[in-house]
């Protein structure tokens, strides 16, 4: 397997055949249970998605490379992936054996164009960390500085390029034969992944990102970013300051040094909020291994290979969305989502506003913390149903932002499971809104702050009507979903059966059997016209 996974044809074959298998399983499942989506069918669908996720995870751990990163990305896409699929992929991390020291040394000396001993006084021949992109070694420079040296794994750039070719084929198949193309701009998403992950292969780019983050947080108390050594860094070798610490999710370390978990969780949240509300770069891979904690409670940010960028306009829209949640102005949240291009023109703003309000209400109630909570489970299912039936999309520029948010949220809950993000962030958001608004908006800020308390009586009355209103909304959208599923199933069925006369047409032309070619051509044309008619009907229903 170790040799086979380095062969391009083998990797492409494994990835594409797995995708085709999954697409066919979904197609035949939808065909078999079309029009009768009841709890028993829902259970079978969940089992199928979970089985597919387990197979994907097993394949990703064997092939390594891009497959692991794509799996990590899919585990954050609750808008298009079934919940059972996401649960199976949670915790998918790089589990790769370290590169033998001799091969790592070859990379170092090739990049430095000299014997490594002339550059460093001493280096550990056993890496302190290993991942799919590179291994990290502890070393000491001749001037006594303790440094971390990240060395790119030999051949990883070839593997990533090969995997991107396979992914390109999978995306083409998904656009042609599945509904994923309506839920996300797959071509733009592919380009974004090439850009972000491609940068991760260039350690000079990571150095630039690290320097930028160091400048950004240089005045933030209790947060540090390692110093980078530009004179030692190349495209495949990165040298930065060594900082003693432990993974921030190492709970035994936190307890050993009597670090307050609640305080640490709040500091982490505000650290991420700073990246959330302001334009510029954000850490796109903030998992526990990329955030260290020192014994004195200092937070250390490392590994800036994967970063995203949020524009000024998007940052302002995110600010409005966060304020809307904090101050319970849910129409502003929906408006912000529209400005960020999450919603297409035909989206039902009133229904989405109700959903946002319900999600926040359930979150505040604490029911989400109960793993057996039927209320929370039902809410998640309903939200996914509405996402599937509403003209909602995930803009490409937010793909890695959503992944970062999900990863960071998991880190905070690991440290402090009782974390209440809304209450933790409220004082900071109030101060930030007041500073942004200036003195002239002081009273507006005050009113926004006390609004949740003034609106409580009306919300109690409104809550009495919520079940009836929500049932009507869900009944309408479940009917629409059933109609859409039926049309999509008929279109997929037509596509598959059109391939038969199309194949016969090619064969008949090659053999010069013109009568057969004519018949096959007629059937192919008929199939294409039917596909076009069904596609128009689906688009019309989708935009209603």
Overview features:
544 residues, alpha+beta, 5-stranded antiparallel beta sheet, 4-stranded mixed beta sheet, 20 helices, 8% strand, globular
Question: What would your notes on this structure say?
Answer:
The chain has helices at 8-32, 39-63, 66-74, 83-89, 101-112, 156-177, 180-183, 186-200, 203-216, 251-256, 261-277, 312-326, 330-339, 349-365, 374-389, 399-415, 421-437, 442-454, 456-511, 514-543; strands at 120-123, 129-130, 134-141, 146-152, 223-224, 237-241, 246-247, 280-283, 291-293, 299-301, 307-310. The protein is of the alpha+beta class. Among the domains are: 1-95 and 162-174, no CATH class; 473-541. Strands 1, 2, 3, 4 and 6 form a five-stranded antiparallel sheet that branches. A four-stranded mixed sheet has the order 5-10-9-7, with no helix packed on it. The longest helix has 56 residues, at 456-511. The model is unreliable at 371-376, 438-443 and 449-471 (pLDDT under 50). The chain crosses the membrane at residues 12-29, 515-531.
